[in-house]
Amino acid sequence: TYTEIVEAMGMYPAPSRILWEQAWIISVIATAGMIAPGKRGLGIETAHERVAAVAAARGVVIQAIGRGVHGSHGAEARRTQLFHPEAVDLRDFDALVRFEPLEPTEAHRLGGSEFDFAWSVNLPSRLGSVDAALGAMEAAMAALRPGGIAAHAFTFNLTSDETTWEFPELVILRRRDVEALAARLIAAGHTVLP
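RESULT FIELD:
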């Protein structure tokens, strides 16, 4: 499955964390039946990952949000960040992928409950604090339709559940952080996969 997904991304299979994270996200949303024509996906604080390209190549409408690249906005950020010709035809990409320069916590400004899935890759490291990262992942749930799914890949602290890294460009979540988020999501009526 890993090889199939990585090749669909236009890459060569390799022992790479970056490739694995993207392949895992695509696998999760595909297994849930969310990669199909007419489905809608939300990419949160997207960078150069290929999830949007793979989904758009299969007819999924993608709305990406984030801060842009080097001050770029709209079409420029969309093309510089998300377009990968090895994975998607330019006509399909232009028809199906949009980029909005919004903060990760502002997904609600797109309109509520309109997405079938949401994803992020290494979101905590881009937000500067554990609380901001957990808040962004929790806020993304408001953008999902009932039955929608969110998949987030991030750096995880395996050595301590007490101390961690929390800097402007490096935030590493602990088990207790993820468990606290899961508890809040369950209390709000969401299902959290093990």
